[in-house]
Records
---
Amino acid sequence: MKQRILVLGAGGFVGRRLMENLALVDWATPLAPRHRAPACPAQAGAGSLDATDARQLAAAMHGVDAVVNAVAGSPATIAANAKALFAAAAAQAAPPRIVLLSSMAVYGPATGVVDEHAPLNAGGGYAAAKVESERCAGRYPRAVILRPGCVYGPHSRQWSDRIAGWLRTARIGNLGDAGEGCCNLLHVDDLAGAIVAALRRPAVEGETFNLAVPAPPTWNEYFLLVAQALGALPLRSVPHLRLTFESRLLAPLLKIAQRATESAGLDSRWLPEPIPPSLLRLFRQRISLDTNKARELLGLRCTPLAEGIRAALAGSPAGAAAMAAR
Amino acid sequence: MLDARDLPDGQLLSADVCIVGAGAAGISMALEFAGSGLEVLLLESGGAGHEKPTQALYEGGVADERQHSPLHRYRERRLGGSTTIWGGRCVPFDDIDFQARTWMPHSGWPFGRGELLPYYVRANQLCEAGTFAYGAAESLGSGARPMIGGFQSTLFSADGIERFSCPTDFGRRYADQLRAARNICVLLHANVTALRLDPAGTRVDGATVRTLTGKSLGVRAGHFVLATGGLETVRLLLASRDVHRNGIGNQYDVVGRYYMCHMAGTIGTLTFARPETVWHGYDVSVEGIYCRRRLALTAAAQQQLQAGNFIARLHHPRITDPGHRTGLLSLLYLAKAFIPYEYAKRLHDGQGGGLLQVLAHVGNVLRDPFGTAAFLLHWLRYRTLPRRKFPSIIIKSRADRYSLDFHAEQWPNPASRVTLGSGHDALGMPKLHVDWRYTAGDVVTVQRAVAALAAELRRCGVGQLDYDPATVESEMTRYGAYGGHHIGTTRMGGDPRSSVVDSDCRVHGVDNLFIASSSVFPTSSQANPTLTIIALALRLAAHLKKLDARERSAQFVAPPPTQARERVVRTRDLVHS
């Protein structure tokens, strides 16, 4: 008998890939409710789901065997979603297994090799919301928590398209010591594979897993790999002064311009993507996720970086064009 | 990162490994120990910046001031050491450099190049010089421009490149990593003035550290590593005489001998049959690293010519001679007072032409205003502002004429030496005296290599090198010993009668004293030494880690303090305090 798998956030970057994977297996029936954001009731339609509403979630997960929570959004949405999700699940007659997508952000500014027992250290915002989500999961015995690093792949705005765009315009490159942090990459296909394993494998409930490539490259090395795939060579050395200008001066201005543009109902994608200070902190952070547990219990296998990067760029129109131009 | 001046006078410190000197070697080693579980104390004489009183500790005497630069030049006594002023040229040693060559006395390393290869890869990364690839095709792609179109020679290869570091200042670049490592304590303004041996003279019992503010500290460690460069290492060994009357490791009077730099200069006039096929500038590798081709005398040619290692590059005409009629070169000559000593040496070549010469240079600048302005803009954009700097001035001669810039190996010579001289520095350390000498072998190397190159260019029909063979010796010694390359003074070898350290860079007869420096090179190669210094330092770090693991498995226990009342502070307590 097929398992009924409810995927929350099925329309997102990770959710879509997971749905494609689940569609290929013979043991699962993936279910993907339509979502609407809680602040946008006007978008609500028949069959739509507010992922922060425990009552609606309870109805959606009625009769399912497992739930994958890949809901993205603002910190408030993430925290509210987790609270509602686990409350709804606990109220089920047969509480399902829940695979919660958390993040390495829960480790805050930690450095060194970090395993799943490391203390959580969230300052605020996104990381705090993820920590709060994990707290909710901690009270639910059938939860499996996944803490991926930087998930790249086709259509990854954050870690593929955005990086490629910055490299093409020489806004980043070799950052020197500012780019020597560990780049805990994980290909979206590998994340989807880990989620599937978290759904299927026995004895993983109540466990938490770091997910990233083994021996992660530095950000400088990642940038070089992406630049090589793009043909955006030679890689430029970017001085600290330029990075300071980008993050302290240009980024706030671009953010304001983005919001103003969107407020006017216009498309803001033509604006350059800001490079915020938080990202520069990440580029410096020497945190290396210990993924031994995921390799052992989930059978985590990672796509070779060069191959993953090529696939990621080929999957985005700009990246594909750049690669074709080579 | 602490300051020795802030510690209590008389404080005793202890660590598993004490590294003396936070330059390229010391910092590279310390980084290798990060997170290893070994407590590492990295002692640095200077602070984060250049400090005159500290730098003055380097002052000493030289036998011939025309042949060797003052001892406080080309070296920096500060965090980062001389990487704070280096040019960034990275070149590994060649296979032949490690071999015992029948025609070169005292040549041969205890191991081959293969032993250093894994460490070269990491050294290249630390220098931010990209991948460890020194062939033009593998670094620049198969379509890279040749240096001289149509030049095919079995005596010279034009397919090798040199890579350039940013140039990376190791102090600034790796300070955060050193701070982040919880097992590493960097102690600034900590001058090691003596090493104390145990009564048997076979083990370093401790080091005396002094500050310019008058404090004295003591250090105990399982292992001591001297990473103080090719000159200061000699000074410290020779000045530490509490047990061995001649200094540590100097039982056979070898410490300070075999002092080598490099032989370098410019010579002749090069013209080419097809100037449009000549490229003497920089290329950029895919990683964004500046690279430059060079003409290298092959190993077979060295054997055939019975010469040392030798490379050459195409160069602009001599700057001091206004006859080049190039505005930019004249501008450099006129601005020599504002150019750091280490980079301006060739602007002070002793051929003073007086006011007429100055006026001729002014005339060159005035006649070439656009060329000069274009250069200044290029310099601002690619040298002054970027983190990765354009390595040097490259000028295309208007008349398609070049000079030959060469860099040659010096032959090991026991009579070329560094000793303790007269006088003492502010800390009471005896000053050094340098008597650098070159040999007939050095002259032969350059004479034969230049002659061979001239013949090969002629044979291939690609160009002509006009020079006066009688001037080779005067040209190769015009600027004296190549500045900043201090090699061979504590050379590596198996026999204590002709070497100071063994193949593990351990001082003969002293169990826990090691040297990470170009001073251990038995021969000097054609290559600039920094990359190999770092590779050897990384190899030493790996060796010490293995040694420590063996000692721990044998339940090694460090000797207890000799006086029960001494309060010893472990490095980890300093780091965490």
Note: The longest strand of chain B covers residues 216-226.
---
Amino acid sequence: MGRYIVRRLLAAIPVLIGLSILLFAYIRILPGDPCVAILGQHRTPEACAALRENLGLDLPLWQQYISYLLKTISGDLGASVVNSQPFVAEFLTRFPGTIELTIGALIFSIGVGIPLGRLAARKVGGWLDGLITGVSLFGVSIPVFVLGLALVVIFGVILGWLPTQGRIDARARFDATSGILLVDTLFAGRLDLFVDVVRHLILPSIALGSIPLAIITRITRASVIEVANEDYVRTARSKGLKEKTVDNRHVMRNAWLPVTTVVGLQVGGLLGGAVLTETVFVWNGVGRWVVDAIENHDYPIVQSTILVFAVIFLIVNLIVDVGYALLNPKIRYQ
Amino acid sequence: MKNLRIGAILGALLMVAAACSSTPAAKEGGTLIVALPGDIVRTDTALTDDSNSSYVIQQVVETLVGLEPGSTSKVVPVLAESYTVSADALTYTFKLRSGVKFHDGTDFNADAVVYNYNRFINIPTALQDYTYYIGAVFGGYGADSNLESATAVDASTVAIKLKKASSNFILTQTLPVFGIQSPTALALGKGDNTESDVTKITGAQGGAGAMVGTGPFKFDKWTVGDSVEIVKNATYWDTAHIAHVDAIVFRAVAEEAQRLNGLAAGEIDLAQTIAPVDAATIAANKDLQLIDRGSSFNTFQISMNHNYVPVSNPKIREAIAYAIDYDYLIKTFYAGAAVKATNWMPAGVLFAKDLALPSYDVAKAKALIAESGETDLTIDFWYPNDVTRPYMPDPKGIFEAITANLEAVGFTIVPNNAPWRGGYLDDEYAGKYEMWLLGWTGDWAGPDNFLKTAFFGYVGGEPSTEFAYKNDALEAAMNAALAAGTDAEAKTQWELAQDLIRADMPTVPVANSKPQAAASIDLKGFIGSAGLNEPLNLVWLDRP
């Protein structure tokens, strides 16, 4: 098992180097000039030249790349060219927001998706199955920002049931410590604010969790149907076991494997989806930050965020693979 | 008896009138949530040049002189009670208020002012990327700065000496970047010109020494990318104007739709700017109020580069000016919150006069085209495809309407577009476009800021690559106006400059928009200003 993990980790190194080159090149071939982003209507040719020199953008590309790579390896992921804030500190400030939202979306998508999938599988071919399949198709098809805006308008503006912006009531002026507000408010003994944080989480979690929900529902349904048709399930039934026992002990235990993989893979998708969700819900997380950075041609922030997201994605995939290998020993020997 | 009855009726009427006219007492307390279009950039006044930072900073750090609330050009005393100008117009002597303290408890006095102005002169080279206004107003730094010296005459008197007379000096000193910060805090936050790396200046990064001024609010917290919080200064020197609200949270809400939703959901009290298309929705919502800022502080124009034919021909430019249906544009794209431009600068700018610019007249446009002698009437015309600006709320829609107007009088328009920051601004500035849509939002309400800085001033002694508009007499008039020792002399030169521009019609000014704000109906006491100098200590929340 140890060798398997080491092999997987080593395989990630060329992926990261390749990614860093691609990222570096991609950001630089985008049209536009950071000078315009920084100096705006006040730019002059002289000011732009001085700015490029200060930012090292006047150097040859290979020199810029080497400098970028060396700094990255040493843990210096740069600073914003717009407000000069260092990347690492800012990332750490915002990442808890994205984690909280991702967890909220996962809880929603797993908590609703698996029961729905099981229900659809049990009623396969019936109207309930058709309805659930239809809803999940809708969930996959609808863009996150459209669903997000619809939720904001319906539940925030028209019905006034739930807040639509931020992670906590701005009027509370709460000082977070860890950045995970669910934890911070509890530790501060502010149950009222804990409830407020949960209320703020509901709509963005639904918006972000809609696509994973649909995928998890469909995979659960397919997996349960497949396992339910296996001989050993038929045998269990013919032994006279109760349907609930057959379901829990024989069907679901074997149906979990593909569902686990899909849930793991969704984490990466959720990080990507957070970009749009956080923008719609004015959520202080990494996603909204990177959207602002793209708008402002803030190269170091965009570059470093994508690199860090890629590392996270690799780690999550590794965890999923290791988990899968633990659940299914055949994988380890392939 | 009849007299008594009339008297009683009159008395009742007077009481009703009195009740109607009396201003309700301001309510104290509460937290005001303000949605800004973006986050602030830094927390050191001198190291900022963007409108979001200025909007927040002006609540915390005060300048020697300021603008009357609601005005863009009427200068009023703030930290200086008064000032005098020497006969040669080179020395400005400011009499300072006494008994004023910075938020860190240190004294505001002549030494503090001198410290700040010496800082402006000697900003380290590596930081000059962030101090546009200081460089622009004083013409540079060190030996290049027009600031000769700042001297403490006594504890409450400061003399600021210029190298050459500058008629815009007092007006420019109202800009928030020239706010006076505590020298102790500047030293603490490494904002004392000893540090050249902006990332290490904690005073600029929201850390120690950040934004320590004398204003009605004190800086509290900056959550970068998300919000800035300031709290009431209960010991503010101007006791008549101590803030009503306990705190203000400025939240960065980039999308206009989210600002509207936040207002409607009660999560935002004041949206500093809204999209013109949302004005009708806001007006129809009984829980919200639309705030008209009165005047405009921007100019939207059809820009042209004179290196290209046919727009190099003055008659063609005049014809274009007659071809545009201004009323339609204003009604359709600005929801009425704009006026037809009468000048290259809005009416509130000093010395601006009505230049009797052409109005919509198709026949006149056609006649001018015929007189021009131009046979190829093909024009390359550009618009930005990914932004809206306060002066240009729907670039594509406006572009299409103008194109239709121009084609109706005989021009052939080649439509082009580019991303705002992905080539548009670079290319128009480099002179690659023949005709394009652009505007300018004022920095200060002096004619130089519009006519010279934004539009037609020479760059490096030559016409700008942007417009390629050569007019040596205009350049001379604008320089003479800036160097004028008296307002009367400046006025004469600026009026001459306006006449020279009008005669050439180098571009076509279209409209001066009036970007509106929107607020909860509970928000009271707000005085809007086209220049966004809006003191929020006057505001209160009328809610339990």
Note: Chain B has 16 helices and 21 strands.
